[in-house]
Amino acid sequence: MTAVPLVSMTSISKAFGSSLALRDVSFELLPGTVHALMGENGAGKSTLMKILAGVVRPDAGTILRNGVPVQMNSPREALDAGVSTVFQELSLLPNLTIAENMFLGREPLTPSGRIDNAAMARATRETLKQLDLDLDPGRLVGGLTIAERQFVEIARGITANADVVILDEPTAALNAADVEILNRHIRALKSQGKAIVYISHRMEEIFRLCDVVSVLKDGRNVATVPVASVSPQELIAMMVGRDIAELFPPRGDGAKSAVALSLDGIRLTADSPPVRLDVHQGEIVALAGLEGQGQRELIRSIIGQYQPVAGTVEVKGRRIALPIAPASGVRRMQALGVGFVPEDRKDEGLFLDLSVAHNIAIGLNSRHSALSIARRYRDIIQDAIKSMAIKVSRPSAPVGSLSGGNQQKALLGRYLALGSDILLVEEPTRGVDIGAKAEMYKLLRDFANRGGAVLVLSRETIELIGLCDRLYVVHGRSIVAEMPAAGASEHAILEAALQR
Amino acid sequence: MSALRHPVLRAATRIPPSYVVFIVLLGALWVLKPAMMNPNILGTFARQVVPLGIVVLGQLLVISSRSIDLSAGGVILLVNYLISSGLLGGIDPLAVIGICLLIGLAVGSVNGFLVGKRRASAVIVTLAVSIVLIGLVEYLANGKPPGDVPAFFRNLYNARPAGVPAPLIFWVGLAIAMSLVLSRSVFGRFVASIGSNPVSAHFSGVPVERTVVAAHIIAGFMSALAGLVQTASIAVGSVRFGPELVMNSIAATILGGVIFGRGAGVWGPFVGVLCFALLFVVMTSLGIQEPGKLVVQGCIILLAAVFYGVRTKVN
Amino acid sequence: MSAKIAGTRIAGVVSARDSRHGLWFLPLLVGLIGGVALAATAADFATTQNLLNLAAQAAPLLLVSIGQMLVVLVRGLDLSVGSVISLSTAILSIDAPATVTIPAVFVMALAVGLVNGVAVTRFHVHPIIATLSVTGIAQGITMLVRPVAGGTIPPIVTVLVNGEFLGIYMPLIWVVVAILAGWKLIHGSRFGLHLFAIGGGDTADTFGIASRRNILLAYVACSTFAALAGMFLAGRIASGDPNIGTQYAVDSITAVALGGTQLAGGIGSLQGTVIGTLLLSMLANGMNLLNVSSFVQTAIKGLILLAVIAIQPRKTIGL
């Protein structure tokens, strides 16, 4: 094929503050291809696609559309240029109807100047029918299930009359049957001569669906090759840049010790089956499975941030009935030595404008009455900074000035300083570089080796396999399988999840 | 905006605007009316803003906790009415003070409950509470001229131990106490954490709801204290004041570098209140009337807020 | 935070019975019951004359509330509407030709709306702070222009709000036109839909909606509605009054909240706002008929506002 590329991005660079998200990346989309974009989280995939979608502006580089230089200054301009995006984070507005979401920003008008609701409903119903979806276009998106929303989002991207469609992890919330429907549509788009960017972590899908794959690593495009010419193992090696095993510290000896934390009879919703799991001292246990299957709800039930229908938590022999009141759950669990490390360190974990010292000591201070005198905990903070190798000029520096990896360490440091002996960790390495990842793994393993118990969840299954001792596979708000991490594979986990 | 990247300018934006404004106003006064630069005169003017200063001590606490209290006017009016109407005549003045402070605590508790526990919008809640209190006082006082303020209060107000007006000493004492609470107590850490990020605060084990409720209770208490000082400052009761005091308390707090979720301490707002004292002196000496004052105050709040908006953007 | 907020909104929408119009039928029910009760207890309530009075009382509040609602839909709040009303009456009462004063009112409204909107959208000033400081400025200017109530209003304005046109009572025409204009803006245009979208989540921009420009326009529209209310009031009292607008900021917020519009943005309806306005006006009218002191009325309004707010649960604590 010597066709003119639909899109050709050349030498794109982008920095956020001091961290370089993209360095000199070039990327080309040919008509009639499904182009996979792979890379670890934080490798720059999302940033690259946000630039193409007009959400983020590059610091340097050019974008050619059908061979003509263009500026994508806003999502509007990108849409007008025929680039349509289905973002990973759900961007639909819950208070609008399906039809309104589909046409938002380009609503058809009647001759009298009103929004043509009838036309919108008609077109929406047709598009949804193409996707085998029987939804009333007048329903509010807020009332849809996650999978339904994902499909509406995809339908929106497909109908935008675009010939470049970016799909950012479209299958994360879909079951196997839905994935098949989606694949059919992607092939249909391809046969119409459109270019599809397909971002996914699932090897199977990449190999079944895509023609070309580009691998990003640390903001660079390390390879663009035909999918047929590589193996999954080669792809992973390209993404990680080194043998994955080197990242992870050796596992525990597997000797059984006392149960530190156990969940029993937890039913997340009225119609979901009861869940039971144990975490022993000295053990790192994962909640694995496809995204959005209830892992997060399960872990958050323990600290009162999700209200399950029924169940009990047993912490070191003390039984607590669920649900726990949201306002006091975190404090109750901290008092019992359970630390919860939230997924989103910027929005849920850290106080970015406050000092590293404050960020670490706040957990300790929270254990005291509001009326007591706040201690500085200088030694504990110094100790944490030193033992965790947090790179910071002085403890009074705002934590927001640190790199992602050091921020993550400071966050973990808060709960370690508390003397927690059970950690609930969501996404331990989200958006941190590969070196910091290895350090986080080591810190968690050291914690376990000292007798601590860790329950962890992550989007990155490879990480869970490498880090943990034992895996529970969660699917449909219940545990469908349990397996030792040694010898487990992404494939085995997916299979276990989808068996039911 | 790029100019603000310059390190010197960025350092300058960390100073509370009140310090700069204070120096500018002092300079203006020195040039315009050198005769006014006299500790006695300035002390008298400073004494006038003590009620505002006390309200600000509560206001900065709630604003640091990402809330706001617009009910001070209603509390002050109620306290003023209770003392000047003679309704509590014949009761020991200390008991009267106690009753007034309890009212402040009660109003603060209502605010705190609705804002912290019910999670209702603080603006609306405290505004509504203020309306209810003002309506109540106006109804009670309907037709009756306000009475005299008992001599006990006026004597306290006019006392000048060591030549310094007593209300000033009281205010500075309260400010030091509040400053210590914020910088030294666990409660202060809680407030700073909630101000920075309420969600993170929750996951760190900070009792967010309780802290917000407590901040409102303290603010209510401060309003009652301010009401007592305000009442003592006038010979007879008044049915009409309060609204501008609330607005000024927010203005002084923002001028002092405390903005929603960005607590900077007690002394920025403290100097912010002093700015208002100086502003009154300068404007009065220039013959600027009430309308002009409103315009100038409005401009100062807006500019201070814009300044912080720009700063937030840079960060 | 954004994910959390989105989650909350979803819950809010679902509880509002799959509609983004909010709980407007509840105040409607209360209003109907209240109306019947008033008709039964106050002999003068259900007379034609009184109902026309009610329309005249409700018209300015309705105008302000529709404007307020536009701002509330995008998670804002405009406390400066009262001072805009007062300033409008003050400008109209200047001894100058109507061809000068009437355009001046709208230029002023445009300026106020722009200052509010630019401060909020460009400088990230909290809406309350921005509109509160603008209130001070506008009120100060009002007191400079018209220190005490008085002056005369151009005849064209008084004619437009008093008497009849084609046999229809003028204030009634204002009410109908305000409702039609409000409906067009909120439920009949792309602008309205985009306001809902902006209030509904942080992602409206990714749909190609210029959030900042739409929010700015909402503030300008709000000030313009307030200026129209000021014109109406000036025509009714036939003079300028520097304090006439004082209670309208709180009253309009109460009316909007009473009509089921959520102060967190993205949910609400014009019918709700109309019902909220009528309910509030009916309350004032009825209490006047029953000789309830105006101070008690103020207190009752405050309590209603508290009750309405207390039953609207939110996720965030604070402002």
Automatic annotation (TrEMBL), chain A:
Topology of the protein relative to the lipid bilayer: Peripheral membrane protein
Annotated GO MF terms: ATP binding; ATP hydrolysis activity
UniProt KW Cell membrane keyword: yes
Coiled coil, from the record: none
Family classification: Belongs to the ABC transporter superfamily.
GO cellular component: plasma membrane
Domain ABC transporter stretches: 7-243, 239-496
Subcellular location(s) of the protein: Cell membrane
Classification via SUPFAM superfamilies: P-loop containing nucleoside triphosphate hydrolases (SSF52540)
Presence of the UniProt keyword ATP-binding in the record: yes
UniProt entry keywords in alphabetical sequence: ATP-binding, Cell membrane, Membrane, Nucleotide-binding, Repeat, Sugar transport, Translocase, Transport
Top-level taxon in the UniProt lineage: Bacteria
Protein name as catalogued: Ribose transport system ATP-binding protein
Automatic annotation (TrEMBL), chain B:
Transmembrane segments: 12-32, 44-63, 70-88, 94-115, 122-142, 162-182, 212-235, 241-260, 267-288, 294-310
GO molecular function: transmembrane transporter activity
Gene Ontology CC annotation, any one: plasma membrane
Keyword Transmembrane included in the entry's annotation: yes
Membrane topology of this protein: Multi-pass membrane protein
PANTHER family named among the record's database cross-references: ABC TRANSPORTER PERMEASE PROTEIN YPHD-RELATED-RELATED (PTHR32196)
UniProt KW keywords: Cell membrane, Membrane, Transmembrane, Transmembrane helix
Native source organism of the sequence: Kaistia hirudinis
Protein name: Ribose transport system permease protein
A Pfam family recorded for this sequence: BPD_transp_2
Subcellular location as annotated: Cell membrane
InterPro entries reported for this sequence: ABC_transp_permease
Source organism, top-level taxon: Bacteria
From TrEMBL, chain C:
Membrane topology: Multi-pass membrane protein
GO molecular function: transmembrane transporter activity
Keyword list, A-Z: Cell membrane, Membrane, Transmembrane, Transmembrane helix
Protein origin, superkingdom: Bacteria
Subcellular location: Cell membrane
Alphabetized CDD domains for the sequence: TM_PBP1_transp_AraH_like
Protein's recorded name: Ribose transport system permease protein
Organism: Kaistia hirudinis
